[in-house]
Amino acid sequence: MSVVSLVNLTKSYGGRPPALRDVTLEVPPGVTGLLGPNGAGKSTLLQCVLGLLPDYDGEVTVLGLDARRDRQAIRRRVGFMPESDAYLPGMTGIRAVRYLGQLSGMPRSEALRRAHEMLYHVGLGEAIYRQVKEYSTGMRQRFKLATALVHDPDLVFLDEPLSGLDPAGRTELLELIRDLATVHGKHILWSSHILPDVEKVADHVIVLDKGKFHGRFRMEELLSDASRVRVELEGDADAFRAGLADVGITLGPDAVHEAEARAAGRSAWIAELPPGRTGADLLRTAHGAGVRIRRMLPVAENLQDVFLRLLGTPGSR
To answer: Is this model's pTM higher than 0.85 or not?
Structure first.
């Protein structure tokens, strides 16, 4: 089951190269991080899914609804927290959130009740009668989250929700996002470039680069991959590499630890172990090649390490 489905989604702007090229993917239930460098197509993807950019090629469904044909029905069931500020000048927090609730089809009294509830929920209870233009950056981020939640959506899209926040503010908003998923059962698609924050909350990640889909991964599996081992050697690394190739193991340089190993008279490498191979194969091959393994450790990666490796960034582990 998926909450969003894309089939061959392509979006172009004039004569420029496509912002999205034949993107086919499924967004699973739960919290999914949408990752990619600047210009990867993350915001364009969200706008196509929301029906804000309907002139695309391909197929998009949201909660089982067609993104072109059922735009109004989709908007009643989804919430959107944009990256840029979006509010009408002169409005207080409570009036702005209530107004957006009414635009979603809620009666005025129900929209007002929900506006109070959401503004208190995101920590703006003492500022509901202040004008939004007077809010700090952190307060505006909370305000935008309240506007995305006022109509009680099933699916929430977050576009860079932690931008401009200090560490304390990021921690508090992360707790709110986690609470939405675990306590209130909301599905969340979260576009961000702050990878450590996504790592703390997301169940899955989807990776885009240059408008192309690079894969969807379960967070647990992505970070617990035991197939990469860091090795420090004394001896003929070429003979060791040749011996590993015979058993299907790839050996590449470990640029991160190369200088440290060289200072100790060693060389630093990363071994890629295919299914069925273990560290014992490394030890046997080293013995046959006449080299000594002085250190052998599984590569401990965080989401940023994995992200850089997936995109083939030079110097990544």
So the answer is: no
